[in-house]
Design brief:
heterodimer; A: alpha/beta; Rossmann fold; eleven-stranded mixed sheet; 11 helices; 11 strands; B: alpha/beta; five-stranded parallel sheet; about 40% helix; globular
Chain lengths: ~300, ~325
């Protein structure tokens, strides 16, 4: 794990969350993820995280010791099952005592069903949600965002447009004033024989966020590689310069972000958006770096 | 000249694929690549490099004047390759099919003509090149962080394959991997999560996995739906109680749409330093097609993979048995 080697992007993000001051994050975790909770100590000492640990008494005790959390630098709420933990965390959030939520990697995939099943105003069932992955890649000059990586298997045109808008607004909140959104397909020309290209074009024209640029369909290489965009003569603000990649399906968006994180030397953080609070949902394979980046980005959005 | 002993160990990267093609060439003479509509300078440049490096020889088919012009553009000496003059693309495709059918070409390669024109001609029954009902594209990627080859199929030819088509894609993909020494490839059927069965492909994929296990258990292991993290990461490190026969070690990622294959493969190429080797399998001879945007190393490696596949096909290994649902080799 090369956590010491933060990219410039991550360092900028770090300064940002430090400036903001400690974010009160309700953190749900299980026995299985206890070893991954150790990095909480450094986030707390770094001055940007105030964790409210929601777990079993045993787990809390071990985490407090392992992460050397000092008294007064955290709170604890005891609850045994994930359902009870979710209810307890949402209760705190309801009382405006939380700025954000976080799930540990092993249970992050449960976050969406748990939050929606719990009911309540924070994550109402009719409210769409999406997972936005942020990936820092070696030798790539900016953070790349990918969505939706968590919720909807086959989003409709309207849902894709919503995913893009939600992502663009979020990325603007992270100081990218004019985010460029690419709706991915296998090719960059609309072709009735390939329904994904048609939907990408429709979603790109539907999605509207002041200051953001939308373009679809685009192939992956044309979306992010300027040389490819020039060679294939695809004009526009987005080709070669995309910040946000909206995949045609959940399988693809997840595949793209996991490929970047696991096979391209990248580091990824995932945040669940759409509810009243942002929720850190780190990928299970992304390790400590994933917990750090997910927590940091979620804190920056809180 | 005789056959090389077949591979005892899997080839793990493009360099080994190229080396294998070279050794096949040394043992049997250079494989012959018939290029249909050869007036494409980047294809000629790649084939020139292949010939110089002992990977393959070529026979060029096309309009004489245009081919010679393209050779000049690519700075390839005009006498490097045999040239068969024809006038139209259809004739070029036909001639390449005839050479392949007569055993005078080991590989057919696409030049400056539409893929559909080439495939339509090659697969006409009268040439006897149609092996199964369907050809499909295999993108064998060397992914350094995976430490071995990963065949993503089919991200090239079929937009939304049916169950029957997936069975054939699988058979073709397995054959490509066997040709590089992976005799019992591990197949991950791509999905968003191993726990979600709600996708539009869920029923087809369940059936596909059942059928493949029942009929082709000796030739492959298969599991799914499997997200990429599980396909390439040891499941015990993920804390997932999951049989590790495919998880963490996938050789083949069987995808459900052209977008799944294309977008994931391009991600690995753009960001993961992956080397791309593409081949169309399922006809009696491998069909090689490279795109202008491929690097020289991608193009050479793609030709080398086609040479390995042609050699494998010639050896008459046991084939995947036919399934009642179609798709077995004949």
């Amino acid at each position: 794990m090369s956590d010491e080697r933060l990219t410039a992007i991550e360092t900028a993000l770090q300064s940002r969350v430090r400036e903001r001051g400690p974010v009160r994050m309700g953190i749900l975790f299980t026995q299985h993820d206890q070893h991954r909770m150790m990095s909480l100590g450094s986030m707390v000492r770094d001055g940007w995280l105030f964790p409210i640990l929601v777990g079993s008494a045993d787990n809390i005790e071990t985490t407090v010791k392992g992460a050397t959390l000092e008294e007064g630098s955290y709170e604890a709420v005891e609850a045994d099952t994930l359902e009870e933990q979710t209810a307890a965390a949402l209760d705190l959030a309801d009382k405006a005592k939380l700025d954000a939520l976080g799930f540990s990697p092993h249970v992050a995939e449960e976050a969406v069903p748990l939050l929606q099943a719990a009911g309540g105003d924070l994550f109402p069932e009719h409210q769409p949600l999406m997972g936005l992955a942020a990936v820092a890649l070696p030798e790539f000059p900016r953070l790349l965002f990918v969505g939706d990586v968590a919720v909807k298997q086959a989003p409709t045109v309207e849902e894709k447009a919503w995913i893009a808008e939600q992502a663009a607004v979020t990325v603007q909140a992270l100081s990218v004033d004019e985010p460029r959104v690419a709706f991915l397909a296998a090719v960059e020309a609309t072709n009735p024989g390939m329904p994904v290209t048609v939907e990408a074009e429709e979603a790109a024209s539907k999605a509207q966020v002041q200051g953001a640029h939308m373009h679809g369909p685009l192939s992956m290489d044309v979306a992010i590689n300027r040389t490819a965009a020039e060679k294939k003569k695809v004009p526009g603000e987005v080709p070669g310069r995309a910040d946000i990649l909206v995949g045609p399906t959940l399988t693809i968006s997840r595949g793209v972000y996991q490929a970047m994180a696991l096979l391209c030397g990248g580091r990824a953080g995932v945040t669940l958006l759409g509810g009243k609070l942002p929720v850190a949902i780190p990928g299970r394979a992304d390790g400590d770096a994933g917990v750090l980046l997910s927590t940091m980005i979620t804190a920056a959005l809180a | 000249m005789g056959d090389l002993p077949f591979l005892e160990n899997p080839l793990v990267n493009h360099e080994q694929v190229i080396e294998r093609a070279r050794r096949i060439g040394e043992a049997r003479g250079l494989a012959r690549v018939a290029v249909a509509a050869a007036e494409e300078d980047d294809v000629l440049a790649a084939l020139y490099a292949c010939k110089q490096e002992g990977i393959a020889d070529a026979v060029l088919i096309g309009d004489r004047e245009k081919v010679e012009q393209a050779l000049d553009n690519a700075e390839v000496p005009r006498d490097t390759f045999e040239l068969i003059a024809v006038e139209t693309h259809e004739e070029a495709a036909l001639k390449s099919a005839q050479l392949a059918a007569a055993g005078e070409a080991d590989v057919v390669m696409k030049g400056y003509l539409k893929t559909s024109v080439l495939l339509k001609t090659l697969l006409k029954h009268e040439h006897g090149l149609r092996d199964r009902e369907l050809v499909s594209h295999s993108a064998a990627l060397y992914v350094p962080a995976h430490g071995k080859l990963l065949n993503i199929t089919d991200g090239g030819t079929l937009i939304q394959p049916t169950l029957e088509q997936k069975i054939v894609i699988l058979a073709n993909g397995v054959r490509v991997m066997r040709a590089v020494g992976i005799m019992k490839p591990r197949v991950a059927v791509f999905g968003a999560s191993e726990r979600r069965d709600d996708g539009p492909h869920a029923d087809d994929n369940r059936r596909l996995i059942e059928l493949a296990r029942e009929h082709w258990g000796a030739f492959l292991t298969i599991d799914g739906p499997m997200p990429l993290d599980l396909a390439v990461t040891d499941p015990t490190s993920l804390g997932i109680p999951y049989a590790p026969d495919v998880a963490g070690q996938a050789d083949i990622l069987l995808v459900n749409s052209i977008e799944e294959g294309n977008i994931v493969a391009k991600t690995l190429i753009q960001f993961g330093g992956a080397i791309f080797m593409g081949v169309i399998a399922g006809a009696k001879v491998p069909i090689s097609l490279v795109s202008r945007s491929d690097t020289m190393i991608n193009k050479k490696s793609s030709v080398a993979l086609a040479v390995c596949l042609a050699d494998f096909d010639r050896r008459g290994f046991d084939s995947l048995p036919a399934m009642p649902e179609m798709g077995g080799e004949r």
